[in-house]
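Query structure, 304 tokens:
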């Protein structure tokens, strides 16, 4: 997949382009992407490196690229929003999409907005596409329990610890693939439950602080785990971490990337009176996580 981060010198082969923020690549977003793939023209996506809304992302930029490439997208425009923020809606369509990028088919959702002040709407796209003889596919919203799937809805679920709902809306469990960093070494040295620590990036939505059942993917192999998201109030942390214990794994993972899939919320984060009390609770949560994870085997997680 070709990744284009600025418009100067951008590839100009005729293409079918999905337009949107795609800040979650949830089931609704993927419906728009699939509409762009269903074309005789080269399939592409036009989006921004950061969400124009300024809201936390539901997916990291690295994972966005990974998912789009796996879907079959051949051309990804991932631009800095500030470069187009002040362009009038009609200019964006005619000068950028039609003249510069040679878009032959545009795909978007019903509520797609574009141009300065988000003044452009689907009706303007219809007018301009008809005038220039371009195709327009307006994809209806995808619903879950009668309500539209949206990144806002997923963020709310993640922030409330509703990992099950977040996974249903995304079409895959909420997950992150991050480098394993050094922690305070209390887990391995004193508790007998060696953990991996991963710092959650600020741009990623914050899951509710607490303990989750998880699957962890290490070099292609899966291990069930119990993951604590938060600041570890018993032993202390100066940053938000995902700290995960994989009872069936042994090895050094520092500097490597591990993907953690959050499956179900077990309990809120809390401070314990002693390390012994913390150790016993971690082991109890580990048994809970094993039951919950093994009820959802890795082959059901989806591709990411």
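Result returned for the query:
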């Amino acid at each position: 997949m070709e990744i284009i981060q600025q418009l100067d010198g951008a590839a100009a082969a005729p293409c079918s382009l999905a337009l949107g923020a795609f800040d979650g690549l949830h089931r609704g977003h993927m419906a728009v992407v699939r509409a762009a793939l269903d074309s005789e023209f080269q399939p592409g996506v036009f989006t921004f490196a950061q969400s124009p809304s300024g809201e936390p992302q539901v997916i990291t930029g690295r994972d966005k690229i990974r998912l789009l490439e796996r879907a079959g997208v051949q051309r990804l425009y991932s631009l800095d929003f500030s470069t187009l923020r002040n362009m009038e809606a009609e200019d964006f369509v005619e000068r950028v999409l039609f003249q510069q990028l040679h878009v032959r088919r545009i795909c978007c959702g019903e509520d797609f907005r574009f141009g300065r002040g988000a003044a452009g709407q689907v009706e303007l796209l219809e007018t301009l596409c008809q005038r220039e003889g371009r195709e327009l596919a307006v994809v209806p919203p995808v619903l879950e329990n009668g309500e539209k799937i949206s990144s806002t809805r997923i963020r709310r679920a993640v922030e409330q610890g509703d990992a099950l709902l977040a996974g249903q809306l995304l079409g895959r469990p909420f997950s992150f693939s991050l480098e394993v960093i050094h922690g305070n070494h209390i887990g391995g040295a004193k508790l007998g439950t060696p953990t991996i620590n991963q710092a959650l990036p600020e741009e990623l939505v914050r899951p509710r602080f607490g303990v989750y059942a998880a699957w962890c993917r290490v070099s292609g192999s899966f291990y069930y785990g119990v993951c604590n998201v938060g600041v570890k109030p018993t032993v202390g942390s100066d940053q938000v971490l995902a700290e995960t214990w994989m009872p069936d794994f042994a090895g050094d993972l520092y500097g490597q990337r591990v993907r953690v899939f959050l499956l179900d919320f077990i309990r809120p984060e809390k401070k314990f009176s002693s390390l012994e009390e913390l150790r016993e609770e971690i082991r109890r949560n580990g048994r809970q996580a094993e039951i919950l994870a093994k009820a959802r085997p890795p082959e059901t997680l989806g591709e990411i």
